Structures are given as structure tokens and as C-alpha cells.
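#lab-general

N.A. 3:47 PM
ok so I finally got the sequence cleaned up, no stray characters, all 311 residues accounted for. can someone with queue access submit it? mine expired

B.Y. 3:52 PM
send it over

N.A. 3:53 PM
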Amino acid sequence: MRPAVEVDRLTKKFGSFTAVDGISFVIKPGTIFGFLGANGAGKSTTIRMLCGLLRPTSGRALVAGLDVDKEADRIKKVIGYMSQKFSLYLDLTVEENLEFFGRVYGLNAEKLSTRLARLKKLTGLEGLENSLTSELPTGWRQRLALSCALLHEPEIIFLDEPTGGVDPLARRKFWDLIYDQSDRGRTVFVTTHYLDEAEYCHELRIIHAGSIVAGGSPQEIKKKYFPENLLELTCSQPLEAYEWLKQQPEIKQVSLFGLRLHLLLEPGAVAGLKLKLAEVMPGKFDLRPIVPSIEDVFIRRLEEEARESGK
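B.Y. 4:20 PM
back already:
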């Protein structure tokens, strides 16, 4: 079975600025593939190249076996694309938007009617057909935008920051819809800057300054970049503890997570650190091992990249 997406040293430059810098990856059919990175990391530029909306400067990419540089028009017929801005017509109703996009995709009246009924039921839009799109809450616009992207039953779905500005409950429900599409055999490529969403993906790439800095399944990434034990410290003065811990030679890394701190220690240093902590904050701390999160990996990789670049 051919890959859904193949990317080989894909690069995009805007003048002297390199937005995407020689990235490579392969996505298997039916996979939920996540692209995690901060704003400006290169996520949207990559997705626009893969959708045939932006020509690469160099490198090669195939989407559904089609070359993004040479067969962009054919690619647009086999993918669904949901942009950050939810490309909807706000002065149209829900039903009018759906019918418009159905016609754009060339669906006849019978197919359009069947698919509209199924998608409205799937996304919960039933009963909102006559609502003006501009008056919908963001979470419902999000569902409408997804429905429009799915009308022609695409093989691969590209979702660019689909949950930006959406409340946590709406985000969770939207991910239920993403899983539903994956269960139906569709490949989903989703970009996000929400660290918790990365855990929902089958495969993940962390992108920073146009380069991929970590890749694999969420579990593989955590195992690869955190072979050591990770500890969590809870105390009454986390900011003061953070500054103190940075000065301790046995601490390989310390990161602040709200009122908690995550620590990486040299092997065999836990007992000694507990004694030190007992001296500086007697009876006021709790130190315990924890499983690393994608947030831990994200922070670690960005700190490593900053050290390597001298920033």
C-alpha cells in the first residue's frame, strides 16, 4: 500500500528567509499525523505546500501518490483542507455554505443531499441549517468548516490549527470527529500548538524554526528524549526553588510547570538532592518520579536547539 504522504527534503524560502528547511517524513494511510510547533515554526507553510497552494523551493512531496509541484490541481480533488480561518461565507446560512461547497466539489443533487444529511448528523449541525454562519459560536463554525471539507469524501484531510480559539470542551468534541474519520480509513494531517493535543495523534513531528526536531509516536518520542527518570517537585516557593535548582551541579535540566517543577538528575543523585532540599525547605516539598509528557519533550528539545544555535 502506498503512503498517504511522502515528503523528502521539502524546503520553502521567502527571499532570504527559510520557512521550511529540508524536512522529510512519511505518513501511512489512516494515520492521525500531528505537526506540533509554535506560531511561525513552519506548520502552515508545510500544509499549504502539501495542499498544492504553495510551490516548494526545493525537495519533493507526494500526496496520494501525486507530486505537489507538478500535479497540484489533481491533489486538490482528493484532499480536504480546513484552514486556520475556517474558509466560510459568514453572510450565508449553514445550509447555504454546505450547498455552495458541495457544488464547488461537483456533487450532483442526489449525492449532495445524502452527504449533507450524514455530515450534519455526524457533526451535530442538525437543526442549525437556517442559522447565519456569522452568528455561530466558534466551535460550531469549526464543525461547519470540517463538514465542508469532508463533503467530497477526501482520501486525506488537512487541518491547519483547527482548534485555535476554541474552548476545551469543543476541542475535545472536535477530536472525536477526527478519530471518527481515522476509523473510516482516512488520513488526517493536523497542525497544532496545543501540547495536550499532540498526545491524541498516532504519529507526531515537532517542528521548530522550519526544522523537525523530534518524531515518532508520542510514546516513542517520550522514551527517546527522556531515557532518564523525570522527577516532579512540588513546593511552596516554586520560583525561588527554580533559581536555586539551576545552580545545583547534579541537575541536568529544570523546567517550571505552573506551581510544579520538572527535574532531570544525574544518575544516583536523587537521595543527595532530597537531603539538600530538606535543608533549604524543611518539610515543605514533595519529590516524586513522573512519566514525561509531550510538553516535557517540547521544552527539552527547544532548549537543546537554543544551546546548539548559541541563542
